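step=encode ok
step=design start
structure_in=
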């Protein structure tokens, strides 16, 4: 049972794997959409503040809690609480278990959306070689595939199997290896798309929309949404980063890695948004179409635009959906790793058994998510599913699950993590983890401690209070 623990082979390996977890549908799909809904500029600025003031300190906290105990979420949080309060181990275990459950639920529906990217990849390949069908209604195409339960099951099964296959091979030989190959490809594709998008006529307007703050356009709900999204996008609040932190060896810096992961995730979210809005603002009538029916940008508006408007779109179209699939896969593997690592560390299962068992159990719930799609489609006014309504609506396993995870599980989990790192662990313990001689010069331990003890928990408690009072910011 007690084999030596697998570790990231280098700091770069850790950064790529954790950045892979962070960059996902949250960056490419959810962020552009909520930026749109909240009228750009001011929302983006508040989001950036949340990332720096709450996201970054919690990222460091999660990685340090994991690195210190060399155990996954449950064991690590037990150890963290027990460092000052030995009788509190149970509470730590409970919080870790809460995270494992969040990973389980999140993965069950994330896979379905990830599956759509596979569909659009094959579709766009066929358009590239066979020509884009004139007169096709993009919404109908989307609905057609989403309503085809057999196809949906096949796509999400494919995605689940891919995820299981990577996690099966473990940390350095599976997760890190895939991240090392996929992330550079992902950055390359995004850069190509950015260059193409900046050349379009709407790019200046897009940049203005995203970066020029106008606070009269932002309400309290938008602020809370920005805070909630900073957890989701950085994979925080559920032990994913604790688990990845538990594979960091003593030689590697938590602080430097956290800075890099947070910076990369944020840059990619902004770049994706610039790309999408440049395209949208370049096309007459697109703006109304999007605000009017909140048609999903990623799977309904964009496919057509690639073939009608975007320079080099025939090449960039398929590449874009590969990008979405790769980004989603490096996130789903981190979700499955949270559940598997728990079974391995706490339940003594072998990695092979844990991965296959957890993967299969989660797929059962993926099936529920797939089966709930027709119900979702049935309710929308135009008979057309806004892909965004899945994150917005209140029906189906999909919507219920996302609502519960984003609004309740991640913020409460994150709140507990701030307490564990800021209040339960001793100053000496956190200081020795962060100030280990490898930390960069910009880092001030006292500042981190202030943020993790005060700023982050108060901000997160504010979200929770607002959620209790009924504000939905998913
Ligand atoms: N960060 C991922 C995204 O932005 C989602 C995720 C959340 C992954 C929590 C792992 C853990 O899509």
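sequence_out=
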């Amino acid at each position: 049972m007690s084999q030596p623990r697998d570790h990231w082979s280098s700091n770069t390996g850790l950064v790529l794997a954790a950045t892979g977890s962070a960059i996902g549908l949250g960056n490419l799909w959810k962020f552009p959409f909520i930026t749109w809904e909240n009228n750009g500029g001011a929302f983006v600025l508040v989001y950036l503040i949340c990332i720096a003031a709450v996201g970054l300190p919690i990222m460091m906290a999660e990685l340090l809690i994991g690195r210190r105990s060399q155990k996954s979420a449950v064991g690590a949080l037990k150890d963290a609480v027990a460092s000052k309060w030995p009788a509190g181990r149970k509470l730590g275990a409970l919080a870790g278990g809460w995270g494992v459950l969040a990973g389980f639920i999140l993965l069950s529906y994330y896979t379905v959306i990830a599956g759509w990217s596979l569909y659009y990849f094959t579709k766009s390949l066929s358009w590239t070689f066979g020509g884009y069908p004139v007169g096709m209604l993009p919404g109908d195409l989307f609905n057609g595939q989403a309503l085809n339960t057999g196809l949906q099951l096949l796509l999400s099964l494919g995605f689940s199997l891919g995820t299981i296959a990577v996690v099966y091979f473990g940390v350095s030989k599976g997760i890190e290896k895939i991240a090392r190959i996929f992330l550079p490809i992902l950055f390359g594709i995004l850069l190509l798309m950015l260059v193409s998008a900046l050349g379009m006529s709407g790019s200046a307007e897009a940049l203005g929309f995203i970066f020029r703050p106008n606070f009269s356009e932002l309400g309290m709900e938008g602020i809370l949404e920005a805070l909630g999204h900073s957890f989701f996008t950085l994979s925080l609040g559920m032990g994913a980063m604790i688990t990845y932190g538990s594979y960091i060896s003593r030689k590697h810096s938590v602080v430097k890695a956290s800075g890099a992961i947070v910076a990369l995730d944020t840059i990619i979210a902004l770049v994706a948004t610039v790309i999408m809005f440049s395209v949208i603002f370049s096309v007459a009538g697109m703006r109304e179409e999007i605000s009017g029916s909140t048609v999903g940008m990623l799977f309904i508006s964009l496919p057509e635009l690639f073939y009608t408007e975007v320079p080099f779109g025939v090449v960039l179209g398929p590449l874009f959906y590969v990008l979405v699939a790769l980004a989603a896969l490096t996130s789903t593997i981190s979700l499955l790793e949270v559940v598997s690592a728990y079974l391995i560390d706490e339940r003594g299962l072998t990695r092979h058994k844990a991965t296959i068992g957890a993967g299969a159990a989660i797929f059962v719930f993926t099936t529920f998510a797939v089966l709930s799609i027709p119900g979702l489609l049935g309710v929308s006014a135009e008979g057309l599913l806004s892909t965004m309504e899945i994150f917005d609506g209140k029906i189906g396993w999909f919507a219920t699950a996302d609502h519960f995870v984003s609004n309740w599980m991640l913020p409460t989990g994150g709140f507990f993590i701030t307490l564990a790192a800021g209040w339960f662990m001793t100053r000496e313990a956190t200081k020795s983890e962060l100030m280990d001689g490898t930390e960069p010069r910009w880092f001030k331990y006292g500042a981190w401690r202030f943020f993790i003890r005060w700023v982050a928990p108060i901000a997160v408690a504010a979200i929770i209070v607002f959620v209790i009072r009924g504000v939905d910011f998913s």
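step=design ok
step=annotate ok -> The chain has one domain: 11-468.
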